[in-house]
Design goal:
- With 137 residues, the chain is mostly helical.
- It has helices spanning 8-36, 43-58, 61-64, 66-84, 88-134.
- It is built from 5 helices and no strands.
- Helix 2 runs antiparallel to helix 4 (66-84), helix 2 (43-58) packs parallel to helix 5 (88-134) and helix 4 (66-84) packs antiparallel against helix 5.
Length: 137
């Protein structure tokens, strides 16, 4: 036996210093494998993106924000294709982008409707004022 490790205290010190290296190696390997693990299939995100696209369509984005709606549809189609090819990272990113584009299209559609309603109200107020001033007192 090595003379440096002949006493129990020396063996404990050696084990404490060098035995911990195995633990760190195991932890490092586990973290590396976890980092390299592939992204799970983004089925939930695809469903959320599809629902966002449907909501935007129902809100009138086809007329008020057609380019945003088209972009959302294209990205969702590309996300589905990436998902079918097993490229889950790309599918997830594209599906998230499609969801955001669909929300943008919906917001623009609702904004357009709100502006039209406001313009209609302003016109109604203008007509009422004209009527009010036209009446003899």
């Amino acid at each position: 036996m090595n003379s440096r490790l002949s006493t129990p205290a020396s063996r404990r010190r050696f084990t404490a210093v060098h035995g911990g290296a195995h633990v760190w190696l195991a932890i490092g390997t586990t973290l590396l494998l976890a980092a390299c693990a592939s992204t799970p299939p983004p089925t939930e995100q695809l469903a959320v993106s599809t629902a966002a696209l449907e909501s935007a369509t129902k809100a009138g984005a086809g007329e008020a924000a057609p380019s945003d709606l088209l972009l959302a549809r294209e990205k969702l189609d590309r996300a589905r294709a990436a998902f079918a090819d097993g490229r889950n990272d790309d599918a997830l990113k594209l599906a998230q982008q499609a969801e955001l584009d669909a929300h943008l299209a919906e917001v623009r559609a609702r904004s357009s409707k709100a502006r039209a309603a406001a313009a209609e109200l302003r016109e109604g107020v203008r007509v009422l004022r004209e009527e009010m001033y036209r009446r003899p007192r």
